[in-house]
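Protein modeling request. Please complete all fields; requests missing the sequence field cannot be processed.
Requester role: graduate student
Desired output: 3D structure, token encoding
Chains: 1
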Amino acid sequence: MTDAQTESMAVNPGTSGILRAHAEDEYAHELAALAAVDDRPRPPSWRLSPWAVATYILGGELPDGTPISPKYFGSARLVEVAVASLATDRALLLLGVPGTAKTWMGEHLAAAISGSSTLVVQGTAGTPEEALRYGWNYARLLAEGPSRAALVAGPVMRAMQAGSLVRIEELTRIPSDVQDSLITILSEKTLPIPELNEEVQARRGFNVIATANSHDKGVNELSSALRRRFNTVVLPLPDTLEQEVEIVQTRVRSLGAALELPADLAALSEIRRVVTVMRELRAGMTQDARTTIKSPSATLSTAEAISVMTNGLALAAHFGDGRVRAEDVAAGLVGAVVKDPVQDRVVWQEYLETVVRNRPDWKDLYRACRDLDGAR
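Delivered output (376 residues):
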């Protein structure tokens, strides 16, 4: 076990053996340290003040010297706007292309504000209205008829009763008629239960964090009535290569520790090359702006780069000497770029021959990718 893994388990003994700990568990020591020094006003039911929540997300050092690790690498103002929105009666919509840390941001906001990030509705094309409202224990419903005992509260109802945050992931994946069941909840702060002639009124502190991606296929646009009930914060892709490299390195190191992969990620060269490939194909132009290239159909986000590097880390650990090399990232890189086997493969081959091949320090990556194509 590496020193980093031992240190992580020592700081967070409760997360040992957990594949992916909840944010409030993994960073419990940071949240406790912030609460201990936080003497600023807190909105009703908040565990921390808005200042402390922003510090938890952005990172920093507390007056007593305790370091707070950054959870989001980006504009501090966007984080402040998101936190301030949740301190009002307006819900928060985190909007952006895939891989811009919408879910990550929402989880950490819920952990810092409510102490729990587990009240979640995962939006899909098949999400029923019950997921946003409530369901029934049908055995009791048939035996006793509609009653409180037969009612099964969903995450939104539980958040309203507790005065806490609830997360709704991929809101635009949910059918439009189901989405609109949120309108009454967000505007009136009540959830009617007509079967019982009752309603649930939200306690102070209740709010909604939703994420949405309007650039993907199969989305349902929000109605204007629903969109008006959200404050929207657009999370952009990282501005610079260095910023994106830092994000990928931080997340891959964390995932590697959780998976106990004994591989060396000290060298940044492979991360920098993978991120450079993603950024150039995404932008349709090389970093030096000298060569125009075609972009593939896939959304080459930071999340894709993290996936490629994590896969490379696993290959190096289990089938190599523990050091991540070009041949370890080649397969993941090709898989991330080539989603359409016809169109994207042409784009990738052109990029490989016109850009990768002509970079002297990328010869090993070029050979690894070419060898992989030859083996297919």
